[in-house]
């Protein structure tokens, strides 16, 4: 297993937990953290990793404050497009293609690319004191790391534009009202709630869950008939899995299904 300094990776019964670990910088993404994140996600994605759900959170009082502005990459003269293409995009693609569900437990501020990372998860749970910030415009940048794709799909055009253009803090409870996230819990309950939910997913029918991810991704660009076709193809594949046999058998036998991820 790779050695990490800027994050921790904890593996427990099919659940991988990545904790961004630069609390003194609100877990801002420096080059080392981005590289470690990519390594960790690739390790989790590996065929023999045994991981069936990924949980991402932050240490300290922040989830992630976006790009590390102290590192100098965002200073004028640097090609930030290249930096996105070389470092953020492989990570976001890897997350998008991960064959298992992703949960983010937003323990504090999620700003800039840190917000993009938070909402790249399938299920986002936030602590009551957390907030979301499209910080880019406040430093003269445009939203990146997938925010212009994901955010309007979550909260609609009007609210997404306002968040991106005004660069204001959106409290977790407003994010919940707007449909940006799945749930808000007391700060003290965040990790237990997120762990319970992530463990449930880790014990779920992994191939069905990863196909749900794919179908949700294609539904934003497919036509209705293309999406019906995609559903049929996914169902053909998933319907032949051990987990489907187990799920139906367990239903008929009136017992809880014991999914293996196969
Ligand atoms: O090439 C590329 O990489 C392009 C990609 C760009 C993607 C982006 O994400 S651009 C957006 C970058 N992020 C931001 O603009 C957010 C900057 N941070 C803030 O606006 C505020 O820190 C927060 C609103 C997030 C939190 O405010 P507050 O008052 O709770 O905390 P603070 O005091 O500002 O921050 C605490 C410490 O973290 C502080 O350090 P210090 O003074 O105690 O030594 C602060 O400098 C540091 N910090 C916070 N955010 C960042 C950061 N250090 C480096 N980079 C940061 N993004």
Brief write-up:
This protein is α/β, with parallel strands linked by helices and 262 residues long. The chain has helices spanning 31-45, 80-97, 113-119, 147-155, 157-166, 172-177, 190-202, 206-218, 224-238, 242-252, and strands spanning 7-12, 15-20, 53-58, 62-64, 102-106, 109-111, 123-127, 131-133, 169-171, 183-185.
Please characterize this protein's 3D structure:
By secondary structure, this protein is α/β, with parallel strands linked by helices. The protein has ten helices and ten strands. The strands form two sheets. The protein has a six-stranded mixed beta sheet, sandwiched between helices. A four-stranded mixed beta sheet has the order 4-6-8-9. The mean pLDDT is 96. The protein has two domains: 196 residues, 2-enoyl-CoA Hydratase, Chain A, domain 1 (Alpha-Beta Complex), CATH 3.90.226.10; 47 residues, Lyase 2-enoyl-coa Hydratase, Chain  A, domain 2, CATH 1.10.12. Strand 2, helix 1 and strand 3 form a beta-alpha-beta unit. The longest helix has 18 residues. Ligand T3D binds next to helix 2 and strand 6.
What does the secondary structure layout of this molecule look like, with pairings?
Elements: E1 7-12, E2 15-20, H1 31-45, E3 53-58, E4 62-64, H2 80-97, E5 102-106, E6 109-111, H3 113-119, E7 123-127, E8 131-133, H4 147-155, H5 157-166, E9 169-171, H6 172-177, E10 183-185, H7 190-202, H8 206-218, H9 224-238, H10 242-252
Parallel strand pairs: 2-3, 3-5, 4-6, 5-7, 6-8, 7-10
Antiparallel strand pairs: 1-2, 8-9
């Amino acid at each position: 297993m790779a050695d990490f300094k800027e994050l921790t990776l904890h593996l427990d019964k099919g659940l991988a937990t990545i904790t961004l670990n630069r609390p003194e910088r609100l877990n801002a993404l420096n080059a080392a953290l981005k590289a470690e994140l990519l390594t960790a996600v690739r390790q989790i994605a590996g065929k023999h990793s045994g991981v069936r759900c990924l949980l991402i959170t932050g240490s300290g009082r922040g989830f992630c404050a976006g790009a590390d502005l102290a590192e100098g990459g965002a200073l004028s003269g640097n090609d930030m497009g290249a930096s996105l293409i070389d470092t953020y995009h492989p990570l976001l693609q890897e997350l998008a293609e991960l064959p298992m569900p992703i949960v983010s437990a937003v323990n504090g501020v999620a700003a800039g690319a840190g917000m993009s990372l938070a909402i790249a998860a399938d299920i986002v749970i936030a602590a009551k004191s957390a907030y979301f910030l499209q910080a880019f415009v406040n430093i003269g940048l445009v939203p990146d790391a997938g925010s212009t794709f994901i955010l309007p799909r979550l909260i609609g055009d009007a609210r997404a534009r306002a968040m991106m253009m005004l660069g204001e803090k959106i409290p977790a409870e407003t994010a919940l009202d707007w449909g940006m996230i799945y749930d808000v819990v007391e700060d003290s309950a965040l990790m237990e709630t997120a762990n319970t939910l992530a463990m449930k997913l880790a014990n779920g029918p992994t191939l069905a869950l990863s196909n749900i991810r794919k179908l949700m991704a294609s539904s934003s660009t497919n036509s209705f008939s293309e999406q019906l076709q995609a559903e049929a193809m996914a169902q053909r594949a998933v319907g032949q899995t051990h987990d489907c046999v187990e799920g139906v058998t367990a239903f008929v036998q009136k017992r809880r299904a014991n999914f293996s991820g196969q």
